[in-house]
Fold:
Amino acid sequence: MEFEQMKVQLHALISNKTLLQATISQPRQKSNDLKRVKLKPVEIRGDYMIQLEFQYERILKHENITIEDLAVKLDALFEQFRQVHAEFQEQTVQVQLSKKNKVLWKSDQNTTAKQVNLSHNRKKQYLLDDSRVHPFLVRLGVQTEDGKIKNQKYDKFKQINRFVEFIDDSLAHLPKDRTIRILDFGSGKSYLTFALYHYLKIEKGLDIHVTGLDLKKEVIEECNRIAADLQYEDLQFLVGDINDFNEETAVDMVVTLHACDVATDMALARAVRWGAKVILSVPCCQHELNRQLQVPALSIMTQHGLVKERFAALATDSIRAELLSLVGYDTQLLEFIDMENTPKNILIRAYHTGKKPTSEQRLKYDEFVRFLYAKPFLENELQDLLL
Structure:
């Protein structure tokens, strides 16, 4: 089979709307940051679409496209990858490409027909079931006493559940033979702090102690009243600054949501020095690099204030993720909540592994910050731990 014929045939099979799932993998270049792309059919507002999940080293991105647009996308992907595994209702197809695009096509019939799942727009199964009454959601005004999610609070409910998904994913990294110590810096009104406590203590029955820390005395007093009303005995809220909090010598999980500018870096540095097994951070207002960014090669972009601000924010979070990797964490940048709900939608998730970085990894980091003329606050905070 010729290369062009293979692409046409694969697109035709997908166009028949019998695709169950597919994976495009085996990058042609080892340096390719994009490791694989997964495809699955979804239904969005009644339209049949293909969802592409781009799996990078530490980032996942999603894109939904029509069947018509898929052909162009496949052309681009086959310039980067050499292997396809696609499962359809009645057959499984395996495609292997040589360096010169010689095609090896293998097709096996499925012995039992399978059904296509177009569940993208169906009712989402939340970890905090929206058909049940959750006392903390009622007390926080998200849910009515008879269990209905208030219309104006549904985005908050989705955000809470997305956060609980990250908490659930982290369970394997937390200790099982003692009390799990958790700190939430900049807890604010503490929707997510209460959700974390409820899920781990009430739903999972774990032995935990949670502290929320914030500078606003009135907010902390209200949160403590709510915790008392809910009889959350192992949840406390304290007034304090990240730098001045010295009541702990070791912490298992550190959460920092929307801590402004280098306050995020302060929290990350404290988490590392406490030996936190899990770090979950949603940064906010990344001004530090924006002030430093004077790169002539990027002037076409950075002459526009809005673009410069967004680039600086993305670069800052990339630097943070890489620094955590350099001090022994498996780190990813993930989508926290849909952009339509909040622009602050990147979450830094880091699990401590103790893995030593390679010299190449450190070199790549140094080259990046030199190119940006950057002097990251977090790098300075962790300087003695870096190779």
In short: The longest strand covers residues 34-44. Confidence is low (pLDDT under 50) at residues 339-343.
